[in-house]
């Protein structure tokens, strides 16, 4: 269902790229429920749950933090993204072009494509940790930034080449395969939780609480890792998809919704993938740590294989691959916006090459939490710009969709809002030491404020006689 | 034929989740559990592709006619 809808959206991109979606193409809540359920149970889940364990979060902080953070994410989709998506019914790119101009959108596309490449790269690396098992490949450790062995580089590059070749062939077959494997993968996560708990000696509700608090999420970070509090969990769960909700990437998907309430359909996916799957993969990692005391190795494939056997390892390969493939495809689409005359296969090959090179560096996996936060942060200001343009243009006295209304390819308010917000966030990080997970919230308000102020200066509403 | 495929897929999913529950209850050993889960994976992979995507393709013309 998920890939089906995405495929349809991608296929129809040319048709409705610059026009609102007609009523006959609108979808009900069920379509979005299935789509989001598939999308949020992916390869990243095998990394994020274990990293929470490595960062020494406590059990209570994790559960409460995930419940609250995911709720805030659902509300962001439902109350911020969906109302604008169903009112305008345009893609993010076209909406942004009308506000910021083609020149600014080109830069946005470039940043977006690069981020997609790195995300896909991390997923190739995750798959490689399972593919390397039969070859006794030396696995990366938590503090690794560079590849440990030539074998790792060869494995990752070969996998990258295969995934790129498949991506060049098109999106269809992988989308069908991902669609088929989604229910099985969700059950594998549930199975991982059950088996992991049994291996940790849980036999009753009482022992569940004590094992959770004292063994799995015991509040002690692994060597070299910072300690996570409930605030880290809340903000990470809320903002790990920041680019999609308050960053407005999902305008492109939710513009197909019959009603703005479809934005809330994400709750199923978020609580399956970002609650059940994160907890289950965390339990798996705790089992691994117990069996390999003092080990710094961090290899999701190996971890799943030890507890679940071949099914676990295959699940890691499929999860990583089916996440990497559409991500390479999306990166290709973003780059094609900048270089429309270059053939699609060449763009995909270039994207695949960058992705494969990125995948050689285990840092992308070990620092996935920071990378995901950075990815959202870089794209978020443009979402804030769309929000401010939609809600405040008339009320605050400036012309909406500045680039379109001034027939320009370039708009200062959007660009300044984007750049100055990132400078502000960088300042908070460097000067005050605010961690990257917490920068999105103040950054969003700053982006809205800068856009409104500069728009009032650049595009003031002129009073007409009739008015 | 389709009903047989669906039954095969259901068996695949059952073999993915029931052995872990039995292991949790102390009814089977971990190696048996891993083996059954592997068989479940194969059962799902060889049956599900023939009805899950087909079902969507079958549905598509209906929605287009409307």
TrEMBL record, chain A:
Sorted alphabetically, which keywords does the UniProt record give?
A: Membrane, Transmembrane, Transmembrane helix
Q: Which top-rank group of organisms is this from?
A: Bacteria
InterPro entries from the UniProt entry:
CodB (IPR030191)
Instruction: Give the Gene Ontology MF terms in alphabetical order.
Output: cytosine transmembrane transporter activity
Choose one Gene Ontology CC annotation of this protein and give it.
plasma membrane
* Membrane-spanning ranges: 62-86, 107-131, 151-172, 184-202, 230-254, 266-291, 303-324, 345-365, 371-392, 412-430, 436-454
- In its UniProt entry, what is this protein called? Purine-cytosine permease-like protein
- Which source organism does the UniProt entry give? Algoriphagus aquaeductus
TrEMBL record, chain B:
Query: Sorted alphabetically, which keywords does the UniProt record give?
Result: Membrane, Transmembrane, Transmembrane helix
- Which stretches are transmembrane? 7-28, 34-52
Protein name per the record: Uncharacterized protein
Query: What is the species of this protein?
Result: Algoriphagus aquaeductus
């Amino acid at each position: 269902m998920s890939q089906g809808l995405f495929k349809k959206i991608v296929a129809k991109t040319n048709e409705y790229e610059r026009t609102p979606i007609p009523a006959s193409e609108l979808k009900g809540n069920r379509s979005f429920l299935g789509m989001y359920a598939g999308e949020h149970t992916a390869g990243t889940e095998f990394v994020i749950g274990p990293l929470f364990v490595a960062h020494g979060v406590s059990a209570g902080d994790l559960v409460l933090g995930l419940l609250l953070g995911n709720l805030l994410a659902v509300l962001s989709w439902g109350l911020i993204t969906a109302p604008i998506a169903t009112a305008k019914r345009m893609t993010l790119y076209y909406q942004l072009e009308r506000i910021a101009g083609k020149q600014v959108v080109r830069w946005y596309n470039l940043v977006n494509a690069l981020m997609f490449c790195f995300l896909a790269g991390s997923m190739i690396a995750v798959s490689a940790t399972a593919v390397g098992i039969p070859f006794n490949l030396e696995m990366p450790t938590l503090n690794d930034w560079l590849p440990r062995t030539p074998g790792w580089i060869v494995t990752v590059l070969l996998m990258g080449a295969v995934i790129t070749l498949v991506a060049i062939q098109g999106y269809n077959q992988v989308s069908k395969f991902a669609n088929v494997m989604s229910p099985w993968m969700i059950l594998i996560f549930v199975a991982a939780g059950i088996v992991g708990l049994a291996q940790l000696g849980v036999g009753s509700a009482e022992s569940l609480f004590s094992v959770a608090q004292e063994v799995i999420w015991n509040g002690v970070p692994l060597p070299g890792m910072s300690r996570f509090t409930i605030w880290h969990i809340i903000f990470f769960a809320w903002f790990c998809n920041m680019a999609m909700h308050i960053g407005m990437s999902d305008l492109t998907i939710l513009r197909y919704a019959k009603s703005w309430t479809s934005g809330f359909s994400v709750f199923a996916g978020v609580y399956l993938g970002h609650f059940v799957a994160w907890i289950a993969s965390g339990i798996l990692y705790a089992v691994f740590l117990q069996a390999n005391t003092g080990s710094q190795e961090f290899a999701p494939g190996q971890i799943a294989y030890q507890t679940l056997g071949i099914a676990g390892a295959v699940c890691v390969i499929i999860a990583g691959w089916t996440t990497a493939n559409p991500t390479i495809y999306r990166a290709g689409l973003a780059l094609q916006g900048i270089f429309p005359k270059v053939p699609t296969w060449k763009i995909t090959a270039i994207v695949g090459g960058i992705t494969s090179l990125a995948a050689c560096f285990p840092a992308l996996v070990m620092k996935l939490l920071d990378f995901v936060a950075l990815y959202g942060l870089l794209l978020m200001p443009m979402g804030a710009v769309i929000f401010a343009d939609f809600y405040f243009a008339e009320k605050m006295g400036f012309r909406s969709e500045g680039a379109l209304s001034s027939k320009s390819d370039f708009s200062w308010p959007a660009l300044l809002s984007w750049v100055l917000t990132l400078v502000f966030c960088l300042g908070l990080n460097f000067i005050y030491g605010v961690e990257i997970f917490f920068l999105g919230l103040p950054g969003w308000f700053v982006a809205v404020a800068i856009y409104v102020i500069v728009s009032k200066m650049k595009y003031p509403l002129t009073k007409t006689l009739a008015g | 034929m389709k009903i047989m495929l669906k039954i095969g897929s259901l068996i695949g999913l059952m073999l993915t989740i029931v052995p872990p529950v039995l292991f949790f209850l102390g009814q089977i050993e971990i190696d048996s559990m891993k083996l059954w889960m592997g068989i479940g994976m194969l059962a799902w992979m060889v049956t599900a592709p023939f009805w899950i995507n087909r079902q969507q393709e079958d549905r598509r013309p209906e929605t287009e006619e409307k």
